[in-house]
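REVIEWER CHECKLIST
Item 1: Sequence provided? yes
Item 2: Single chain? yes
Item 3: Sequence as submitted:
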Amino acid sequence: MSPVFDEENDTTNFAPYFSFKAADGHTYTVQSNVATNPPGFEVGESVRVLYLRTDPTSAKLGSFWQIWLVTVLCVGLGAFFAGVGYLLLRYERKLIRRENDPHR
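Item 4: Structure as written out by the authors:
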C-alpha cells in the first residue's frame, strides 16, 4: 500500500500497488488509481487483476469499487443535477401557469 495524504481533510488514504505476471511473461507493478481509508486490501492478499494485453500497465484490480468508482460517482452526480433541473423546470412552468390563469 502506498499512503496518499489528503491535506484538505487531514487524512491519509491508501492506494494499493500490485504486481502481476502478464501473458507476455513480463511482471508488471502498477499503482491503483483508487485510494481508500481504511485500506481496501491487505498486504500480500491475492486479488484478481484485469488488464489489456496491448497495455498491461493500465491494469486494474478486479473489485467493484476499483473498476466502477468513477462511473458510480458520475452517474450519481448526473442523476442529482438532472433531478434538480427537472424540479426547477416544473416549478417554473407552475409559476407561468399561475401568471397566465384568467381566474385569479
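Item 5: Key structural point noted by reviewer: The beta strands are 2-6, 11-15, 17-21, 27-31, 49-52, 55-61.
Item 6: Recommendation: ____
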